[in-house]
Hints:
37% of the residues are buried. By secondary structure, this protein is an alpha/beta fold. 62% of the residues lie in helices and 10% in strands.
Amino acid sequence: xxxxxxxxxxxxxxxxxxxxxxxxxxxxxxxxxxxxxxxxxxxxxxxxxxxxxxxxxxxxxxxxxxxxxxxxxxxxxxxxxxxxxxxxxxxxxxxxxxxxxxxxxxxxxxxxxxxxxxxxxxxxxxxxxxxxxxxxxxxxxxxxxxxxxxxxxxxxxxxxxxxxxxxxxxxxxxxxxxxxxxxxxxxxxxxxxxxxxxxxxxxxxxxxxxxxxxxxxxxxxxxxxxxxxxxxxxxxxxxxxxxxxxxxxxxxxxxxxxxxxxxxxxxxxxxxxxxxxxxxxxxxxxxxxxxxxxxxxxxxxxxxxxxxxxxxxxxxxxxxxxxxxxxxxxxxxxxxxxxxxxxxxxxxxxxxx
Length: 353
């Protein structure tokens, strides 16, 4: 017995080291292996063409075919057919960039003028992708000898480099805070407490009340702290409420699995955090295919990042993909919590019998 305990004592640090290496690998793998692919962009030609002795010539249509059939795996092209489609796409944030060929494109080229391709770049959709696209556009302009005139929508210039990581900082703050708050609340107000009169359902109700208050405090505290540290003018009210909703989802998930599995239940939200931390800034188009399908397709933190960017940079609403992901997390946590309460109540009923 003493020999077994001695082995465990020496093996525990090795196990902890291996676990730490595994977590670091999981967190950093998407960033180290990222490669742009299938970034959704659109193109629309307004070129009116011109009549020549040989017939009608439309350099804009020719250019559009060349661009969309270029075989560039980094970009996934859609062809838009009207100004309304362009307007709606920019409003909805469907594409990272929309290319428009001007009306006089053919005539300008025929008279020896410099051809210009207009690019509307949605910087707020994802600042990291925006930077990558800017580099691609510069290379495209140099290779084709054509001038690219860029217009920025949903500019993140006021945020600077922080725009790429601000939502990650906010979510990391509330995620860690939510894990600690939920774990302490759930363990201190246990379902199997000594208060027989209150019972398991009563204890669970008090847990949820504490968590609701904690989520509100965390959400607004995170915004206030980030605003105070960075000096960036961000909306405390709307963003604070968004983060409170996200904190609520994290807390409910943690609470449910800790009630169900004990302290080991923290492994569920902790694993979600490790798998998704890098996805808050990286778009799924930058991920390896298997990671995109196996992780990014369901990972809540991916949607946390997308929803917060929409709210912060694209004039989005509070009801977004981040809110939906938090609600799903919360519902899963409540389901786990109710199973735990039902199980505990059965123990109480058997004890009374």
